[in-house]
């Protein structure tokens, strides 16, 4: 005869797992409208739209956060190129004009302001670090320049909280920016979930609450750049949300 306590425990566990799964499904559905593409719009160009990375909406629905390195360095005025935020997904996506409010090279963060009606905004967590082992997820556009504007969700855990010093193979790869960070490194999250090109700027959020706890920043690729697609052996990093709070406070942006 089966142990009643054991049967009760099994059913309780199954109920908990199904409940957690349903909650996460709801969170992802709620977050998707806040996820946007960041890129370049060329009215007379082919292609007209170039996707460079991911962003997410905060504040009053007019502000978008992304990585500073996602922003285009130069725009061709002769081609009427403009920095753009892409709203929606697939063929239904629309283009919004965007202007840069602030950028931080130190934290590799940027805040943009978009025109038009406000979009659903994500909620930022408070500025405390979350511990190793915490379950997180991020939704963005991995390899978006190839796959298009279709949001993809990855999940994992916080693997470590580590100084933001990127290893280099030779002394010739050490830049002035890297030297400055080596003298005064700040702490970032290392993840066990693999991000891809296009995920830069994605919101990293708590799987239970949906609150933003970090911003996907970069992948340290252990092999060649091409191998990241077929053999993703990179380590993913995320900028803690506390640094976004700092930038927003300095620029009087409400969250």
Largest sheet: 6 strands, antiparallel, barrel
Strand content: 25-35%
Distance between the termini: 58 Å
Structural class given helices, strands, pairing?
A: alpha+beta
Q: What fold name stands as the CATH topology of the domain at 135-250?
A: Thrombin, subunit H
Order of helices and strands: HEEEEEEEHEHEEEHEH
- Poorly predicted tracts of residues: 10-17, 221-229
Number of strands: 12
Q: How many DSSP H or I helices?
A: 5
By CATH, the architecture of the domain at 135-250 is named Beta Barrel
Strand neighbour order, sheet with most strands: 1-2-3-6-5-4
User: Averaged pLDDT, please?
Assistant: 82
Structure in words:
This protein has a domain at 135-250: Thrombin, subunit H (Beta Barrel). By secondary structure, it is of the alpha+beta class. The termini are far apart. Residues 10-17 and 221-229 have low confidence and may be disordered. Helix content is 21%, strand content 34%. Strands 1-2-3-6-5-4 form a six-stranded antiparallel β-barrel.
């Amino acid at each position: 005869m089966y142990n009643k306590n054991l049967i009760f425990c099994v059913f309780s566990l199954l109920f908990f797992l199904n409940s957690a799964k349903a909650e996460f499904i709801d969170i992802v559905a709620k977050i998707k409208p806040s996820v946007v593409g960041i890129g370049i719009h060329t009215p007379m160009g082919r292609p007209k739209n170039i996707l460079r990375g991911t962003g997410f909406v905060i504040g009053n629905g007019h502000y978008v956060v992304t990585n500073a390195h996602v922003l285009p360095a130069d725009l061709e005025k002769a081609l009427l190129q403009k920095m753009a935020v892409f709203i929606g997904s697939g063929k239904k996506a629309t283009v919004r004009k965007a202007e840069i409010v602030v950028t931080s090279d130190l934290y590799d963060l940027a805040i943009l302001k978009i025109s038009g009606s406000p979009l659903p905004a994500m909620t930022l967590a408070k500025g405390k670090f979350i511990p190793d082992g915490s379950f997180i997820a991020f939704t963005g556009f991995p390899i978006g320049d190839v796959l298009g504007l279709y949001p993809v969700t990855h999940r994992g855990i916080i693997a470590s909280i580590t100084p933001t010093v990127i290893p280099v193979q030779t002394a010739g790869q050490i830049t002035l920016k890297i030297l400055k960070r080596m003298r005064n490194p700040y702490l970032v999250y290392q993840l066990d979930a693999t991000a891809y090109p296009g995920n830069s700027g994605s919101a990293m959020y708590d799987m239970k609450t949906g609150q933003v706890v970090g911003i996907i920043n970069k992948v340290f690729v252990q092999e060649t750049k091409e191998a990241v697609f077929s053999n993703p052996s990179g380590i993913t990093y995320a900028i803690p949300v506390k640094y976004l709070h700092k930038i927003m406070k300095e620029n009087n942006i409400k969250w």
